[in-house]
Amino acid sequence: MAKLGADLKPMTVRLLHLPEQVEFTNPTRREKRGEDWRYALSKWSKFMKRARINEGDTVYFSFDKTHQVLNVDLVVPHPKKCRD
After folding, report:
1. How much is the pTM?
2. In-domain check, residue 63
3. Would you give per-residue pLDDT tens digits along the chain (84 residues)?
4. Are 41 and 28 within 8 A, CB to CB?
5. Which of 13, 71, 60 is nearest to 41 (CA)?
6. What is its main location (predicted)?
7. In terms of residue numbers, what domain contains 20?
8. 55: in domain
């Protein structure tokens, strides 16, 4: 069984949905999911603010395996927020 290392590396994130496409690194952490462990982004609220993602928005992600980059491809605002 492979274990996630304690020395997790930050993940590179590309915000492709913004007019000025941004790339930055975000810290990661281990997260228990049932019996297994997985990687998760740390400082989620800072990530959402930087990516201009609001609670309830639908976010489309992809992962570039070649470059090991998480892409935020599209953010669809929550319908209730659009009416305001």
Report:
1. 0.74
2. yes
3. 455 555 677 889 999 999 999 999 988 888 888 888 877 888 888 899 999 999 999 999 999 989 889 999 999 998 875 554
4. yes
5. 13
6. nucleus
7. 11-83
8. yes
